[in-house]
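Quick one: structure for this chain?
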Amino acid sequence: MDILCLILFLSVVALWFFTNEYGTLSGVYMPTCAMSGRGFNWLVFVILLASLWFSGAGAVEDTLLDCHLTSRLDCRSVMLMLLSSLIVLMVLKLFSVRGSVVYALLGSLAAYGLLLDGVFDFGWDFILSFVAAPAMAFLLSAAIRAVFKVVLSKVDVHMMKMSHYMRHAVILCIVLTPFALGMNWGGLMCGIGDMIMDAGTVGISVLAIVGLIMFMFMQFGREQGDEPSGPFADFSIYVVVAVGFSVAIVLMFFSFESSASVIGLSPVPLSVSSLVFAAIAGAETAQRSRLVDNMEYVREVTAFFAAPVCAFVLTYILFYIIGGESADHMTDFVVMTAATLILVALVFAGYVRMQRRSKEAVDRLVAAQQQQLYEHSRALGDMELKVVMSENQALHNAVEMKRQEVMNVALSIVEQKEYLESLSALVKKMSKTADEKERDRLLAEMDASLKQRISYDRDVDSQYFYAQAETLHEDFNAKLSENFPDLTQQEKRLATLLRLGFSSKYIATLMNITTKSVEIGRYRLRQKLGLSKGDNLVRFIKSI
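Got it. Here's what it folds into:
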């Protein structure tokens, strides 16, 4: 019966820690991506078991044994304390408060000692240690974060190099924290285990049961993924290192008599969650920025006080009702059965919780992929819409150009008709004039009118031609203006005509200038384009 009692006790402690409190420890380190989730779990597994092996006959165990003056705990008492602790922890969990199994068990032990007329004696140094531990974590974290802040402001180190250093610091914290946790909690489990049965098999039982439960936890939770999540996902790597070192140092400090006695305190088992949040509060104070929501601190403070107090009250009531030293075997059977059922329920709840987390991780991945597909499809739709709008604009421009051409042709026909009618009237007037001087005057007037008309038509045709050419070669004109902003409008027209391949003679006709003026314009254009004597002007213009 004693070995079953010991197995049940160790199973409850380990199972509650890995399904409820372990997430706080991993939640601090995982978002840094210093290690994969699987690598982190295996490293903690090895280091925790190694430190549990060295924690046997440690200072925490001696403190518990010194407080408990009797040498043995009967199985019914252990089951009642476990039952009370689990009930309190589950009720707190219903209100989203993660209580510590360590503090709940200590509250139950205190109630059991009180019922036995002061057999379990808590000294003030023992009680003050629980208050001093989070305060020390707060101060250490604030100091480490402040040192990082000062060093980063004065030392000129590249960001990538500093990130490399900090990543190694995180890995060091991952090594130290489970080692310190095993040294601290190993004393609790071995101490209570020694009260249940002979010390010879307690250490091996602790290693076997804790190792088995953590291995099951790793197997059930291996599909949860490595993506950062939870209340610590946005922590900077400097905060993580400050929190990690603080928690590890405090756990180690209160695991040895030589260190705790320096300030008049006792080695005590501590809650990892309370130390983590105290260290986070210290980092917040140092960097003057909010890291977690205030409600998280409220829940943690509630768990810090409610778990031991409620477990004390409930244990006292159950012992008072059932009786402390009764030999009723039926009562022992009922208590053992109830504790076993609660343990099974706890195992099932932990399994369901891990499966739910795994499903949530898959759902988050699917949602992220769907969001990415939606963004890609929307971007593709926007591109298609732009293409359609561009084509519609091109068609609209083409239709507008054709409409303008039809209007110009119609206006030209009307204007030519009116001009020809005026010439016809002038010819009739000349035919009826007998005076030779009057006829010469009319002929001179007709000649001037024809020359003016020829010049006007040439200018109108040139302007129309330039308008069409600039529309068709809009990109060329834009690049020419962007690369050579000093060019005049006349020089841009000359460049356009050269790009189209016209000779100097045709260019002179279109621009209504002489051939020599065209050659002078080409020379000036070469200078503004920065061409040397051997460069081909037309080839350069076509390459723009």
